[in-house]
Amino acid sequence: MNNLTELEVENLRHLIGGHATVAKKLETYAQSCTDPQLKTMLQRDAQSARQAQQQLLNFLG
Length: 61
Known about the structure:
Organism: Bacillus oleivorans
Radius of gyration: 14 Å
Oligomer: single chain
Largest sheet: none
Structural class: mainly alpha
Protein name: Coat F domain-containing protein
Low-confidence stretches: none
Number of strands: 0
């Protein structure tokens, strides 16, 4: 586990969970959005949050 302290692991898990929450909310907003430009922006931002979440998960693995 890359020699992370317990506090660092806890902080990573918190950040990962936060990115998951943001991604889910953005996906939900995008689904209900009627403006195509806004919908695209929300989907792109959700994908960015998922990518950041995955990058943080790599530190745990």
